[in-house]
């Protein structure tokens, strides 16, 4: 056997009397028809050469593409393989957009949110004291498992001149919609405090609150009667057209339409109108529908006293 078949033998020193490697020998027989027959190459045979100098400008593009791939990989680890976003302290100014699908947004120990397709959420601030977010447009559902956890930052939302934050220790679940100057908050669990145009609002579970063009409406339970809703809408229209000075008459219409204990949600908010609320008989109506707050008689009770009383006796969801 010629020297070119010496690799068939695996013994050192070479011993042609030993048995050849059968697997390699079988491969030799299999590919024998494809072996070169010793003929020279034809004159017109194309031989591979180095790339023309004109194409060398492509090399920087390849380097840029590799860098972009690394960047995409880093972003994927930052936002999660499923498109989710993990917020971190110092993310101030960051914008999160859900283009075609829902995106999960999380801040450890603070919130878990679902930004619906077409929505945009902006991080206004994130430090040890507070996580502040703004819904620019679209819809977001927010789960706040522990609103008052020791050592965790507080949570605040903003949208169209309104600010929102969870109240108390009960877990909160809410939905926030923003469409231009229209903002709608719906609370499914817990309680949310709101501020807008110098007024304070409390939105408990089962209630909604609307802000139109920077002007706040009055919170209502979702099961409120049509008559009360019409009175509240009329009060909003009066104020939008003629200003806050007409709220006294508008408040009287709401007081007249309030018929059940849960209607006191609107009446409690009217107390901050002070003189207009007194003229409309808001407190007298509160007493009729929910009784007096506490056993100590008084001519009037503070809004905080009424709030604690109404939470306990009037705003619980019907079974």
What's a quick, concise take on this entry?
With 319 residues, the chain is an alpha+beta fold. 29% of the residues lie in helices and 27% in strands. The protein has a 15-stranded mixed beta sheet that branches.
What does it look like?
With 319 residues, the protein is an alpha+beta fold. The protein has a domain at 218-319. The protein is 29% helix and 27% strand. The protein has helices at 22-31, 58-79, 226-242, 247-257, 264-270, 275-280, 282-290, 303-313; strands spanning 85-86, 95-97, 103-107, 111-115, 120-126, 130-144, 154-159, 162-166, 172-179, 182-189, 191-196, 199-204, 207-212, 215-216, 220-221. It has a 15-stranded mixed β-sheet that branches. A hairpin with a 3-residue loop joins β3 and β4 (111-115). α3 packs antiparallel against α4 and α5 (264-270) runs antiparallel to α7 (282-290). It is elongated, with a radius of gyration of 37 Å. The chain starts with 21 loop residues before the first helix and ends in a 6-residue tail after the last helix. Residues 76-81 have low confidence and may be disordered.
Supply database-style keywords:
single chain; 15 strands; 8 helices; alpha+beta; 15-stranded mixed beta sheet; elongated; 29% helix; 319 residues
- From the alpha carbons, calculate the radius of gyration and give it in angstroms: 37 Å
| Strand tally | 15
What share of the residues lie within helices? 25-40%
Percentage of residues in DSSP E strands: 25-35%
User: How many helical stretches?
Assistant: 8
User: Spans of 5+ residues with little confidence (pLDDT < 50)?
Assistant: 76-81
Biggest beta sheet summary: 15 strands, mixed
Shape: elongated
Q: Helices and strands, in N-to-C order? A: HHEEEEEEEEEEEEEEEHHHHHH
Structural class: alpha+beta
- Mean pLDDT over all positions: 83
Query: What is the CA-CA span between the terminal residues?
Result: 97 Å
